[in-house]
Design brief:
Number of domains: 2
Largest sheet: 6 strands, antiparallel
Order of helices and strands: HEEEEEEEEEE
Pfam families: DUF2911 (PF11138)
Number of helices: 1
Keywords: Signal
InterPro entries: DUF2911
Radius of gyration: 19 Å
Structural class: mainly beta
Oligomer: single chain
Protein name: DUF2911 domain-containing protein
């Protein structure tokens, strides 16, 4: 009986070790013990049985012109601050009707006045070390005027068992895109 208990304990610890190693291997290192000007944030949402998680930096407006100024129209933006924004899907999903396989991607965008391009890229990197050849998805979505949001925010709205709207919100701009499972 004791050998069975020992075996179960060893198996449990081995399983936990594998899970921890897998999590650390796929997650981005989001800093050290010093506070950042643009603090890290994460948001997760279960859609049906699919887990969607996003980790990003939250820059502030600080009385700056953001889109068309700090973040130029027509240029690739890391969609946050510091490291590229990471989005993880536990299962295959559809974004704006296009299939995306389960996995972790960088979320980049190209802001324009009325429409934005949402980009999923297979390379996780610091800042804007963007590599277009690693794009997995590009879709265009309309942007909307919104109430003022001082710190960049990513949230989920209109969640059902089969879809959710992921919303990027900063200053007076909201950019929603649909994720379906």
């Amino acid at each position: 009986m004791k050998s069975v208990q020992t075996y179960l304990k060893i198996t449990a610890f081995a399983f936990l070790g594998v899970m921890l190693f897998t999590s650390l291997g796929t997650a981005q290192d989001r800093g050290n013990k010093k506070a950042r000007t643009s603090p890290n944030a994460s948001v997760s949402q279960t859609i049906g049985t699919t887990q969607v998680s996003i980790t990003y930096g939250r820059p502030s407006v600080n009385e700056r012109e953001v889109f068309g100024g700090l973040e130029a129209y027509g240029e690739v933006w890391r969609t946050g601050a510091n490291e590229s924004t990471a989005i993880t899907f536990s299962d295959d999903v559809m974004i704006e009707g296009k299939k995306v396989e389960a996995g972790t991607y960088s979320l980049y965008t190209i802001p324009r006045k009325d429409t934005w391009t949402i980009i999923l890229n297979s390379k996780l990197s610091w800042g804007t070390q963007y590599d277009k050849s690693k794009d997995v998805l590009r879709v265009k979505v309309p942007s909307k005027e919104a109430s003022h949001m001082e710190q960049f925010l990513i949230s989920f709205h209109n969640v059902t068992n089969s879809s959710a709207e992921c919303v990027l919100h900063w200053k007076n701009t909201k950019v929603p895109f649909t994720i379906e499972v």
